[in-house]
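Hey,
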Amino acid sequence: MSASPSNHAKGLALTAFGGLTLTVDIPLIRLADGDHWTILLLRSSTTLVATLLIWLAWRWLRGDAPRLVPGRSGVVVAALYGLASITFISAVYNTSTANLVFILAFNTMFAALLSWIFLKERPRPVTLVAMAAMLVGVLVIVFDGIGTGNFVGDMLAVSSAFLLACAITITRASGKDMGFTALVAVVLPLIVAVVMVQKTGFQVAAPWWIIFNGAVIMPISFFCLATGPRYISGPEVAMFYLLETILAPVWIWMIFTETPSRNSMIGGVILIATLVLHSLWQLNEGRRRRAAAAVRHPA
Protein backbone atom coordinates (compact mmCIF):
# COMPACT_ATOMS: atom_id res chain seq x y z
CA MET A 1 0.00 0.00 0.00
CA SER A 2 1.58 3.25 -1.14
CA ALA A 3 1.19 6.59 0.55
CA SER A 4 1.80 10.14 -0.62
CA PRO A 5 4.53 12.12 1.17
CA SER A 6 1.89 14.23 2.95
CA ASN A 7 -0.03 11.17 4.13
CA HIS A 8 3.19 9.50 5.22
CA ALA A 9 4.13 12.58 7.26
CA LYS A 10 0.62 12.61 8.76
CA GLY A 11 0.95 8.96 9.74
CA LEU A 12 4.34 9.54 11.34
CA ALA A 13 3.05 12.54 13.31
CA LEU A 14 -0.05 10.65 14.54
CA THR A 15 1.84 7.57 15.67
CA ALA A 16 4.65 9.59 17.26
CA PHE A 17 2.14 11.57 19.34
CA GLY A 18 0.26 8.40 20.26
CA GLY A 19 3.45 6.60 21.25
CA LEU A 20 4.63 9.52 23.38
CA THR A 21 1.27 9.72 25.18
CA LEU A 22 1.33 5.98 25.85
CA THR A 23 4.58 6.26 27.84
CA VAL A 24 2.68 7.35 30.98
CA ASP A 25 0.28 4.39 30.90
CA ILE A 26 2.28 2.04 33.14
CA PRO A 27 3.24 4.74 35.70
CA LEU A 28 -0.44 5.68 36.08
CA ILE A 29 -1.39 2.02 36.53
CA ARG A 30 1.24 1.66 39.23
CA LEU A 31 0.21 4.92 40.94
CA ALA A 32 -3.39 3.69 41.21
CA ASP A 33 -2.13 0.86 43.46
CA GLY A 34 -4.85 -1.73 43.05
CA ASP A 35 -5.65 -5.32 42.15
CA HIS A 36 -5.09 -5.87 38.42
CA TRP A 37 -8.71 -6.91 37.76
CA THR A 38 -9.97 -3.74 39.44
CA ILE A 39 -7.48 -1.68 37.44
CA LEU A 40 -8.62 -3.39 34.24
CA LEU A 41 -12.26 -2.68 35.14
CA LEU A 42 -11.67 1.03 35.77
CA ARG A 43 -9.32 1.50 32.82
CA SER A 44 -11.64 -0.27 30.37
CA SER A 45 -14.90 1.33 31.54
CA THR A 46 -13.56 4.91 31.53
CA THR A 47 -11.95 4.36 28.12
CA LEU A 48 -15.23 3.04 26.71
CA VAL A 49 -17.29 5.94 28.10
CA ALA A 50 -14.79 8.54 26.85
CA THR A 51 -14.64 6.89 23.41
CA LEU A 52 -18.41 6.83 22.97
CA LEU A 53 -18.73 10.47 24.07
CA ILE A 54 -16.01 11.56 21.63
CA TRP A 55 -17.55 9.53 18.79
CA LEU A 56 -21.06 10.91 19.43
CA ALA A 57 -19.72 14.48 19.59
CA TRP A 58 -17.81 13.94 16.31
CA ARG A 59 -20.91 12.52 14.66
CA TRP A 60 -23.11 15.39 15.90
CA LEU A 61 -20.69 18.20 15.00
CA ARG A 62 -19.31 16.92 11.71
CA GLY A 63 -21.46 13.97 10.69
CA ASP A 64 -18.54 12.00 9.25
CA ALA A 65 -17.39 10.00 12.28
CA PRO A 66 -15.67 6.73 11.31
CA ARG A 67 -17.49 3.49 12.05
CA LEU A 68 -16.75 2.11 15.49
CA VAL A 69 -16.17 -1.41 14.13
CA PRO A 70 -15.78 -1.43 10.32
CA GLY A 71 -16.88 -4.88 9.13
CA ARG A 72 -15.45 -8.31 9.87
CA SER A 73 -11.87 -7.08 9.87
CA GLY A 74 -12.91 -4.54 12.50
CA VAL A 75 -14.33 -7.30 14.71
CA VAL A 76 -11.06 -9.25 14.46
CA VAL A 77 -8.96 -6.16 15.18
CA ALA A 78 -11.15 -5.29 18.18
CA ALA A 79 -10.78 -8.82 19.56
CA LEU A 80 -6.99 -8.65 19.18
CA TYR A 81 -6.74 -5.28 20.92
CA GLY A 82 -9.04 -6.54 23.68
CA LEU A 83 -6.93 -9.63 24.31
CA ALA A 84 -3.76 -7.50 24.20
CA SER A 85 -5.22 -5.26 26.91
CA ILE A 86 -5.86 -8.25 29.19
CA THR A 87 -2.37 -9.72 28.70
CA PHE A 88 -0.77 -6.28 29.11
CA ILE A 89 -2.42 -5.48 32.46
CA SER A 90 -1.67 -9.00 33.69
CA ALA A 91 1.99 -8.58 32.66
CA VAL A 92 2.24 -5.30 34.60
CA TYR A 93 1.54 -7.26 37.80
CA ASN A 94 3.70 -10.29 36.97
CA THR A 95 6.99 -8.85 35.75
CA SER A 96 9.09 -5.72 36.10
CA THR A 97 8.27 -2.59 34.13
CA ALA A 98 11.62 -2.76 32.34
CA ASN A 99 11.04 -6.37 31.24
CA LEU A 100 7.53 -5.53 30.08
CA VAL A 101 8.37 -2.53 27.92
CA PHE A 102 11.56 -4.07 26.55
CA ILE A 103 9.67 -7.18 25.43
CA LEU A 104 6.80 -5.09 24.03
CA ALA A 105 9.37 -3.47 21.75
CA PHE A 106 9.52 -6.82 19.92
CA ASN A 107 6.14 -5.75 18.56
CA THR A 108 8.13 -4.05 15.77
CA MET A 109 9.70 -7.25 14.56
CA PHE A 110 6.48 -9.24 14.94
CA ALA A 111 4.84 -6.64 12.67
CA ALA A 112 7.65 -6.94 10.11
CA LEU A 113 7.36 -10.74 10.13
CA LEU A 114 3.56 -10.71 9.77
CA SER A 115 3.75 -8.10 6.99
CA TRP A 116 6.20 -10.37 5.19
CA ILE A 117 3.99 -13.45 5.51
CA PHE A 118 0.55 -11.97 4.87
CA LEU A 119 1.10 -8.68 3.01
CA LYS A 120 4.09 -9.84 0.96
CA GLU A 121 6.07 -6.83 2.21
CA ARG A 122 9.38 -8.67 2.18
CA PRO A 123 11.81 -7.27 4.75
CA ARG A 124 15.27 -6.32 3.58
CA PRO A 125 18.34 -8.20 4.82
CA VAL A 126 19.09 -5.47 7.37
CA THR A 127 15.61 -5.99 8.88
CA LEU A 128 16.21 -9.74 9.15
CA VAL A 129 19.49 -9.05 10.95
CA ALA A 130 17.67 -6.66 13.30
CA MET A 131 15.01 -9.31 13.99
CA ALA A 132 17.71 -11.81 14.94
CA ALA A 133 19.42 -9.29 17.25
CA MET A 134 16.12 -8.40 18.92
CA LEU A 135 15.31 -12.07 19.44
CA VAL A 136 18.61 -12.41 21.30
CA GLY A 137 17.68 -9.42 23.48
CA VAL A 138 14.26 -10.86 24.33
CA LEU A 139 15.76 -14.27 25.14
CA VAL A 140 18.25 -12.63 27.53
CA ILE A 141 15.38 -10.91 29.37
CA VAL A 142 13.14 -14.00 29.42
CA PHE A 143 15.99 -16.23 30.62
CA ASP A 144 16.51 -13.81 33.50
CA GLY A 145 12.78 -14.05 34.25
CA ILE A 146 12.99 -17.82 34.71
CA GLY A 147 15.28 -17.38 37.67
CA THR A 148 13.48 -14.42 39.23
CA GLY A 149 9.93 -15.75 39.01
CA ASN A 150 8.92 -13.32 36.23
CA PHE A 151 8.69 -15.93 33.47
CA VAL A 152 4.85 -15.91 33.35
CA GLY A 153 4.82 -12.11 33.20
CA ASP A 154 7.43 -12.11 30.46
CA MET A 155 5.36 -14.57 28.41
CA LEU A 156 2.29 -12.37 28.89
CA ALA A 157 4.35 -9.44 27.57
CA VAL A 158 5.39 -11.49 24.52
CA SER A 159 1.73 -12.39 23.93
CA SER A 160 0.71 -8.74 24.16
CA ALA A 161 3.38 -7.71 21.65
CA PHE A 162 2.27 -10.40 19.21
CA LEU A 163 -1.43 -9.53 19.52
CA LEU A 164 -0.70 -5.83 18.89
CA ALA A 165 1.37 -6.72 15.84
CA CYS A 166 -1.50 -8.84 14.50
CA ALA A 167 -3.94 -5.96 14.99
CA ILE A 168 -1.60 -3.52 13.22
CA THR A 169 -1.09 -5.92 10.30
CA ILE A 170 -4.82 -6.54 9.77
CA THR A 171 -5.52 -2.82 9.98
CA ARG A 172 -2.83 -2.21 7.37
CA ALA A 173 -4.23 -4.93 5.09
CA SER A 174 -7.82 -3.69 5.35
CA GLY A 175 -7.02 -0.02 4.72
CA LYS A 176 -9.92 0.87 7.02
CA ASP A 177 -10.05 3.49 9.74
CA MET A 178 -9.63 1.53 12.99
CA GLY A 179 -9.02 4.52 15.27
CA PHE A 180 -12.17 3.95 17.31
CA THR A 181 -12.04 0.16 16.92
CA ALA A 182 -8.95 -0.06 19.13
CA LEU A 183 -10.83 1.86 21.81
CA VAL A 184 -14.21 0.10 21.80
CA ALA A 185 -12.17 -3.13 21.95
CA VAL A 186 -12.06 -2.54 25.73
CA VAL A 187 -15.53 -4.14 25.87
CA LEU A 188 -13.86 -7.56 25.97
CA PRO A 189 -11.48 -6.87 28.89
CA LEU A 190 -14.30 -4.97 30.62
CA ILE A 191 -16.55 -8.05 30.58
CA VAL A 192 -13.72 -10.25 31.88
CA ALA A 193 -12.87 -7.69 34.59
CA VAL A 194 -16.50 -7.42 35.78
CA VAL A 195 -16.64 -11.19 36.24
CA MET A 196 -13.29 -11.34 38.08
CA VAL A 197 -13.94 -8.33 40.35
CA GLN A 198 -17.09 -10.04 41.60
CA LYS A 199 -14.79 -12.80 42.88
CA THR A 200 -11.82 -10.75 44.11
CA GLY A 201 -13.59 -7.59 45.25
CA PHE A 202 -12.99 -3.95 44.28
CA GLN A 203 -9.43 -3.12 45.39
CA VAL A 204 -7.75 0.18 44.45
CA ALA A 205 -6.09 2.83 46.62
CA ALA A 206 -6.03 5.81 44.22
CA PRO A 207 -8.69 5.30 41.53
CA TRP A 208 -8.35 8.82 40.09
CA TRP A 209 -5.03 7.92 38.43
CA ILE A 210 -6.51 5.03 36.48
CA ILE A 211 -9.68 7.01 35.67
CA PHE A 212 -7.50 9.75 34.15
CA ASN A 213 -5.57 7.06 32.31
CA GLY A 214 -8.68 5.49 30.83
CA ALA A 215 -10.54 8.72 30.08
CA VAL A 216 -7.66 10.71 28.56
CA ILE A 217 -4.44 8.78 27.92
CA MET A 218 -5.93 5.64 26.36
CA PRO A 219 -8.29 7.41 23.89
CA ILE A 220 -5.53 9.72 22.67
CA SER A 221 -2.76 7.15 22.40
CA PHE A 222 -4.68 4.24 20.90
CA PHE A 223 -6.68 6.37 18.47
CA CYS A 224 -3.43 7.79 17.07
CA LEU A 225 -1.61 4.45 17.01
CA ALA A 226 -4.56 2.59 15.48
CA THR A 227 -5.07 5.26 12.79
CA GLY A 228 -1.39 5.25 11.79
CA PRO A 229 -1.49 2.05 9.65
CA ARG A 230 -3.77 3.84 7.15
CA TYR A 231 -0.81 6.01 6.16
CA ILE A 232 2.41 4.17 7.05
CA SER A 233 3.59 0.56 7.18
CA GLY A 234 2.97 -1.79 10.09
CA PRO A 235 6.65 -1.93 11.10
CA GLU A 236 6.81 1.88 11.09
CA VAL A 237 3.75 2.10 13.36
CA ALA A 238 5.20 -0.51 15.70
CA MET A 239 8.45 1.45 15.92
CA PHE A 240 6.72 4.20 17.85
CA TYR A 241 6.05 1.78 20.70
CA LEU A 242 9.80 2.23 21.18
CA LEU A 243 9.01 5.52 22.92
CA GLU A 244 7.34 3.57 25.73
CA THR A 245 10.28 1.19 25.82
CA ILE A 246 12.68 4.07 26.42
CA LEU A 247 10.63 6.42 28.60
CA ALA A 248 8.38 4.21 30.77
CA PRO A 249 11.31 2.73 32.77
CA VAL A 250 12.60 6.27 33.27
CA TRP A 251 9.26 7.44 34.73
CA ILE A 252 9.09 4.30 36.92
CA TRP A 253 12.63 4.83 38.15
CA MET A 254 11.90 8.50 38.96
CA ILE A 255 8.62 7.72 40.77
CA PHE A 256 9.21 4.30 42.36
CA THR A 257 13.04 3.97 42.23
CA GLU A 258 12.60 0.56 40.58
CA THR A 259 15.96 -0.52 39.16
CA PRO A 260 16.05 -3.11 36.33
CA SER A 261 18.08 -6.31 36.79
CA ARG A 262 21.43 -6.74 35.04
CA ASN A 263 20.08 -9.19 32.42
CA SER A 264 17.08 -6.96 31.82
CA MET A 265 19.39 -4.01 31.17
CA ILE A 266 21.59 -6.06 28.83
CA GLY A 267 18.59 -7.33 26.85
CA GLY A 268 17.02 -3.88 26.87
CA VAL A 269 20.17 -2.24 25.53
CA ILE A 270 20.30 -4.82 22.71
CA LEU A 271 16.64 -4.16 21.86
CA ILE A 272 16.84 -0.38 22.02
CA ALA A 273 20.11 -0.13 20.10
CA THR A 274 18.79 -2.46 17.40
CA LEU A 275 15.48 -0.61 17.13
CA VAL A 276 17.06 2.84 17.01
CA LEU A 277 19.56 1.85 14.33
CA HIS A 278 16.94 0.00 12.30
CA SER A 279 14.41 2.83 12.66
CA LEU A 280 16.93 5.40 11.44
CA TRP A 281 17.82 3.17 8.50
CA GLN A 282 14.16 2.57 7.61
CA LEU A 283 13.21 6.23 7.77
CA ASN A 284 16.23 7.14 5.64
CA GLU A 285 15.30 4.48 3.07
CA GLY A 286 11.74 5.78 3.01
CA ARG A 287 12.95 9.30 2.24
CA ARG A 288 15.18 7.96 -0.54
CA ARG A 289 12.33 6.02 -2.15
CA ARG A 290 9.97 9.00 -2.01
CA ALA A 291 12.67 11.27 -3.44
CA ALA A 292 13.31 8.79 -6.26
CA ALA A 293 9.58 8.54 -6.98
CA ALA A 294 9.33 12.35 -7.12
CA VAL A 295 12.14 12.46 -9.69
CA ARG A 296 10.51 9.78 -11.87
CA HIS A 297 7.06 11.37 -11.66
CA PRO A 298 7.50 15.14 -11.28
CA ALA A 299 4.34 17.15 -10.60
